[in-house]
Specification:
With about 150 residues, the chain is mainly alpha-helical. It has 6 helices and no strands. Bound molecules: heme C.
Length: about 150
């Protein structure tokens, strides 16, 4: 019932105000993923030897990723925010809204890999490398199906 009321309120808003609101949501969504990417980037650099392995730093980035998995993204995936709705602004494929269960599944694999990484990131470089590789596979797993190659 609450959902229906909310829809009615949204429908009453001027179209431009709503489009702006949705654009803000998309920006926030992309910001979330940028945070994932920023932390992952530091870890990958250590694995590749572009940065020196440091257990405490690796642990910090792994813990940041755990923190990010506790964020509920649901509101950032409001209807009307796919690449089909806002071309040029987002790479989120419309398939996401047709297959929330599939997205959820990819999300769960990602959360699991983050938690595993967090267990080992501070131990040594080999453990970090294995954890990062597994996690990277779960990022790619979702991107392959639900993120467009370009905007
Ligand atoms: C459950 C699905 C899913 C998982 C898991 C996932 N992503 Fe994404 N990611 C997306 C989607 C969808 C977008 C496109 C968002 C948009 O353009 O609105 C995206 C966008 C991005 C972007 C681009 C942000 C920008 O500048 O527009 C980066 C960077 C990124 N993801 C990194 C990661 C990393 C790193 C991981 C794993 C640690 C990860 N993602 C895991 C779905 C996922």
């Amino acid at each position: 019932m609450r959902k229906i009321v909310l829809t009615a309120v949204l429908a009453a808003l001027p179209a431009t105000a709503m489009a702006e609101g949705l654009e803000d949501l998309v920006e926030a969504r992309r910001g979330y993923y940028k945070l994932l990417g920023a932390n992952m980037g530091e870890l990958v650099a250590m694995v590749k030897g572009e940065a020196e392995y440091d257990g405490a730093t690796a642990q910090t980035h792994a813990a940041n990723l755990v923190t990010l998995t506790n964020y509920n993204l649901g509101h950032l995936y409001a209807p009307g925010t796919s690449k089909a709705d806002l071309p040029g602004e987002t790479r989120a494929l419309p398939e996401i809204w047709d297959d929330m269960a599939g997205v959820q599944e990819k999300g769960m694999a990602f959360v699991e890999a983050v938690n595993e990484l967090n267990e080992v990131a501070g131990l040594d470089k080999a453990e970090l490398a294995a954890g990062v590789q597994k996690l990277g596979g779960t990022c790619k797993g979702c991107h392959d199906d639900y993120r467009a190659k370009d905007f």
